[in-house]
Amino acid sequence: HEIKNPLTPIQLSAERLRRKYRHEITGDLETFDRCTDTIIRQVGDIGRMVDEFSAFARMPTPKFGSHDPAEMLRAGVFALRVASPDIAVEMAEPPEGLTFTCDDRMVGQALTNVLKNAAEAIAGRSGAHEKGRILASLHADEQAMCFIIEDNGVGLPTRDRDRLTEPYVTTREKGTGLGLAIVKRIAEEHGGELLLSDAQTLSGARVVLKFPPVEQASAKPKRTKKVTDGV
Ligand SMILES: Nc1ncnc2c1ncn2[C@@H]1O[C@H](COP(=O)(O)OP(=O)(O)OP(=O)(O)O)[C@@H](O)[C@H]1O
Ligand SMILES: [Mg+2]
Fold first, then answer.
1. 83/120 same-domain check
2. For a FRET experiment, which of 13, 43, 159, 185 has its CA 20 to 30 Å from that of 169?
3. Is the pLDDT of residue 224 over 70?
């Protein structure tokens, strides 16, 4: 908070200066614009980084409740579509009627971080490319429940892959490297794990959030039978 509190007034002041004096500038308008834009943009970046630092430092203990994982994935996909309209964010028809005992905000945060990485990996491509694509899916069986996110971005770095989930490990200029560290911690708090590999359907990365198996609503008798058969 001590860092974050002064940021808003700095940003608002810069915006105000721009609004108020921009039309009075007769000389070097370009420099004026560039400088004010830089202040506003960088301050915004600092604010976002501070948010991430503090989220990681005081990661709350999960408040478990019953939630629909399909709904959670839909929410993440929807938010990403709004934020990145140039990327085709596809979602495979998820299994319905699942009940996931989790802290929905934390798992939502994990999904957001993973989806954001996918979008950034796409933005990080250089040269002419096919349209950016992200595939999100949900799978559930007797062994596990998985959220799977694939992209056609730059792909995971080849070296030191297993270190990517450590705090502050980043290959992006503006990354803090906390995204996946947070995801890993959230997964582990839910008895799950975070798996990173090359994409199978697309050309980039594949990120799997794997959790213990979840309950399926009795509306699906097929599955109930399967379970009894197995016993
Ligand atoms: N979908 C992906 N495609 C390619 N590389 C990825 C992908 N997701 C993560 N990475 C790699 O893992 C690194 C760590 O990711 P992480 O989310 O922890 O940090 P970041 O995205 O760099 O920064 P932050 O999330 O804190 O803004 C990234 O810098 C990138 O090299
Ligand atoms: Mg990230």
1. yes
2. 43
3. no
Q: Rg of the Cα trace of the chain?
A: 21
Task: Say how many Å lie between the first and final Cα of the chain, rounded.
Answer: 54
Establish whether residue 69 lines the binding site of ligand 1, counting it when its CB lies within 6 angstroms of any ligand atom.
no
Token pair belonging to 142? 């007797």
Q: Do 49 and 143 fall within a single domain?
A: no
**CATH label of the domain that carries residue 70:** 3.30.565.10
- What pLDDT does 122 receive? 96
Task: Count the domains in the chain.
Answer: 2
One domain, residues 106 and 138:
yes
44 pLDDT band, cuts 50/70/90, is very high
**Percent of the chain residues past pLDDT 90, beyond the cut:** 74
Q: Across residues 203-207, what is the average pLDDT?
A: 96
Beta carbons of 145 and 100 less than 8 angstroms apart: yes
Residue that finishes a domain, picked among 57, 76, 91: 57
Cα 176 to middle of ligand 1, angstroms: 9
Residue 156 Cβ inside 6 Å of ligand 1? The answer reads: yes
Residues 121 and 160 in one domain: yes
Distance, CA of 15 to CA of 3 (rounded, Å): 20
Q: What is the pLDDT of residues 94-111, one digit of tens each?
A: 999 999 999 999 999 999
**SS3 state of residue 148:** strand
Q: pLDDT at residue 2 above 70?
A: yes
